[in-house]
Each structure stands twice: as structure tokens, then as C-alpha cells.
Write a structure and sequence with these properties.
Elements: H1 2-30, E1 37-42, E2 45-59, E3 64-66, E4 72-77, E5 84-85, E6 90-94, H2 97-121, H3 124-155, H4 161-219, E7 221-223, E8 228-230, E9 240-241, E10 250-253, E11 258-265, H5 266-273, H6 278-282, E12 287-290, E13 301-305, E14 315-322, E15 334-351, E16 356-358, E17 361-367, E18 373-384, E19 387-392, E20 399-403, E21 415-418
Parallel strand pairs: 1-21
Antiparallel strand pairs: 1-20, 2-11, 2-15, 3-10, 4-6, 4-9, 5-8, 6-7, 8-10, 11-14, 12-15, 13-14, 15-19, 16-17, 17-18, 17-20, 18-19
Helix pairs in contact: 2-4, 3-4
């Protein structure tokens, strides 16, 4: 029995050692290093459009400050902050009562002035003076007839000489009175003319006062001067509006179109003025890259430049417009303006992330024979979106590592996989 127990123990120990040895061999096999996996692109030649990109910012060129044209307290506010308004839309209503009263007073003055003008136009004083003149002229005729009738009688001693003297004296007096009445008529004519002109001036002045008061009443309802998106109200209901206030009531910015400013270097500016590259390409349309990296769907165009070079940066500002019918672009946003400047035929294009830069030199990691990594110096050209044109260093058909660069060591094998589903 003892012999059997010892034999069983020895057998168990041998089996345990055998199993341990096998497990150790399997574990060592499992931990052998595997080639790291990397993503590669296979280079090829293609015709590539070349773009230049410039940092840009949107702005509202025709922003308008809404101000009061008359004084008064705000009784109503008729818009919501951030709403789109149209030209002529009412925004604020001031206290209208003082201006309504002024309109009524001006209309009353106009009625009185018109009545005065009508009275002056009837020339009552002149007519009265002319009637008086006609009466004394009739008396003058009678006095002459008396003198003429008495003169032959006196000559024949048929009438007293005293009667003739009295008749002549009456004739002289009446003649003087006629001249006086003629002067009165002329004076009345001049006075009437001046009165008519004066009352006409009063009527015109009253009409102007009516127009001014009606305008002030109209201005008491403050309307949007342009169409666009309105900002917050800086004066609330109950606040006082004055024409001389330095602070506007609110602002309105037109959003369709939206303006964009960006800057060119002096060399690029001269090239633009000569009608090369940028100038020619801009006629085909500008692209706007938004801050989230997405391309704005509508193209813009260059409208002009400012009138001087920035001496601090050596650049000049260009201004462009982009249609904005949906009003998704707002003033103050940053982005990049992309301009097509030409085409490069038969060039190799690789992702920018594949290029390594060190001390001014550029290189890429390629996968060669037996899937081993090699360092390949390159000379790069223009950037095209997320890619880069290779001027020297790569030929069609080479495999360039794009992802997994930190795991790829020159001279070591890797496990290449197509990048982005290639």
C-alpha cells in the first residue's frame, strides 16, 4: 500500500512538471513581438488644383445705428432681439400726444393765415379809396361846370362876380381833394399789395409748420431704416429718447450679403493688381472655410481693397462678399478664404499628417520590401486641403505611412493596412 501511494505521488509530480513545461513553451510563443500595424497610402500622380488660404473675418459693412429724431418717452417696443426686420417696420412708439397737439395748433394757424390772405386778396381798402376818389372826381366835374356856367354871365354882368370867385375857389379845393384821393388810392394799392404778399408768406409759413409738426408726429414712431437683423434695445420702455444722445437705441446689420475681410502680402497684392493668379481665380469664385472646418456652400467674390498697406504687417486688406440668404453667417466670425490660383498636372499628393518636419527638413516613412520601414526625404509644395503636393522624393506606387508613425521604426517590419479604406 505504501509503495502504491509513493508511486501515485511521483506520477502526479511528473505530470505536473510536464504540464508546466508545456504551458511555459506556449506562453513564450504567445509573447513574441508582432509587427505594429500602420495605415498607408499608395502614391499616384494626378492633376491637382492649387489653392491659397487666408485668415478671414466676417463683418457688417452697412450696419446702421437706430436713433431718435425727436425727443420723447418710449411707450411701446415692437420687436424681439435678434429678429429680422424690414425697412420701414415700426420699432418704437414714443408718447404721441405732444406731437398730435402740435399738428392741431399748426393746422389752426394755417386756417387763420388762409383767412387773412383771403381778406387781403379782396382789396377792400383799395376799393374804398377808389370809391372816394370817384366821388371827388364827380364833384370836380360839377365845380368846373359851375365855373364855366358863371364865367359868361359875369362877363355880361348878368351874375355877381362874387359867385364866380366862390365857384373858382370851390373848384380849386375840389381839385386838391382829388389829388389827395388819388394819392390815397395809390397808397391803398401799395398797402394792399404788401398785405397780400405778407399773408401769402404767412400761409406758406403755416404750411411749413404743419409739415414740420406732421413729420415730428411721424418720427415719434421710430421705424427700421434698412432691412436686416436687429440687436438688443439699449433703451427700454419708459426710457427717454433724445436726438442728441450719444447712445443709439439699437443696431441693425444687413446679413445678405455678408462681407469678409482678409489680407494679402505686398507680393501677392502686386500679383493681384497685375491680373495674375489670385485676380484671375477670384473671378471664378471664392470659398469660405468656416471655423468648424466645413466649406460654406455658396461662393463669394472680391469687391475691392483698402487704400493703404499696413506698415506693421506689410499686408493689405481685401474685402469680399458672400451671399447669405439663410443668414447663417454673422458679423465677427473667423474662418479662411480659399482662392484657386492654378493647376498642377501629374503631381504626387499625400496627406499632410504623413509629413514629418525636423530642423527645416521634411521626410516621410515608407514601407518597402519585406514590409520594412524606411525614411524618405521629400520636398513639399503647396497644400491642397488636407493634402500636400510632393515636388521631390516620391514616385508613383510607393507606400507612405499616414497613421501609426510613432510605432514605425526605420528598418523594422510593420503590418501595413490601407488608409481610409484604400
Amino acid at each position: 500500500m505504501l509503495f502504491k501511494a509513493v508511486s501515485s505521488f511521483v506520477f502526479a509530480v511528473l505530470v505536473s512538471l510536464t504540464v508546466s513545461g508545456c504551458t511555459e513553451k506556449v506562453s513564450r510563443a504567445d509573447v513574441l513581438p508582432q509587427p505594429p500595424q500602420v495605415s498607408v497610402v499608395v502614391t499616384s500622380v494626378q492633376d491637382t488644383p492649387v489653392f491659397n488660404e487666408y485668415v478671414a473675418q466676417t463683418f457688417a459693412r452697412d450696419m446702421v445705428e437706430v436713433r431718435g429724431r425727436v425727443d420723447g418717452y418710449i411707450e411701446k417696443r415692437l420687436f424681439e432681439t435678434g429678429a429680422d426686420v424690414v425697412a420701414g417696420q415700426p420699432l418704437y412708439v414714443l408718447d404721441l400726444r405732444p406731437y398730435q397737439a402740435e399738428v392741431r395748433r399748426a393746422n389752426g394757424d394755417l386756417v387763420q393765415s388762409a383767412a387773412n390772405q383771403d381778406f387781403a386778396s379782396r382789396q377792400v381798402g383799395l376799393l374804398q379809396a377808389q370809391a372816394d376818389l370817384a366821388q371827388v372826381e364827380a364833384n370836380l366835374v360839377k365845380a368846373r361846370m359851375d365855373v364855366e356856367r358863371l364865367q359868361p354871365l359875369v362877363d355880361q354882368n348878368a351874375a355877381p362876380h362874387q359867385d364866380l370867385d366862390n365857384a373858382k375857389a370851390a373848384l380849386a379845393a375840389i381839385d386838391a381833394n382829388v389829388r389827395a384821393k388819388q394819392a390815397s388810392v395809390e397808397q391803398a394799392r401799395l398797402s394792399t399789395k404788401a398785405q397780400i404778399e405778407s399773408t401769402q408768406g404767412q400761409v406758406e409759413s403755416s404750411k411749413a409748420n404743419v409739415l414740420t409738426s406732421e413729420l415730428n408726429l411721424e418720427y415719434a414712431t421710430i421705424r427700421a431704416p434698412i432691412s436686416g437683423r436687429i440687436g438688443d434695445s439699449l433703451v427700454q420702455v419708459g426710457g427717454l429718447v433724445t436726438r442728441a444722445s450719444a447712445q443709439p437705441l439699437t443696431t441693425i446689420v444687413p446679413l445678405d450679403v455678408i462681407w469678409v475681410r482678409f489680407k494679402l502680402s505686398e507680393d501677392e497684392y502686386f500679383e493681384y493688381k497685375r491680373g495674375n493668379s489670385i485676380s484671375a481665380a477670384s473671378k471664378a469664385g471664392l470659398q469660405l472655410i468656416l471655423s468648424d472646418g466645413k466649406t460654406y456652400p455658396l461662393e463669394g467674390r472680391i469687391e475691392g481693397t483698402v487704400n493703404q498697406i499696413d506698415s506693421k504687417t506689410g499686408t493689405i486688406e481685401l474685402q469680399a462678399t458672400f451671399p447669405n440668404p439663410q443668414k447663417v453667417l454673422l458679423p465677427g466670425q473667423f474662418g479662411r478664404v480659399r482662392i484657386k490660383t492654378g493647376n498642377r498636372p501629374n503631381v504626387v499628393l499625400i496627406p499632410q499628417r504623413a509629413v514629418q518636419e525636423l530642423q527645416g527638413s521634411q521626410s516621410v516613412l515608407t514601407v518597402g520590401m519585406e514590409n520594412k520601414v524606411a525614411v524618405q526625404p521629400v520636398v513639399m509644395g503647396e497644400r491642397v486641403g488636407e493634402n500636400w503636393i510632393v515636388l521631390q522624393g516620391l514616385k508613383p506606387g510607393e507606400r507612405v505611412i499616414v497613421e501609426g508613425l510613432q510605432k514605425a521604426m526605420p528598418g523594422t517590419p510593420v503590418d501595413p493596412k490601407p488608409f481610409g479604406g484604400q
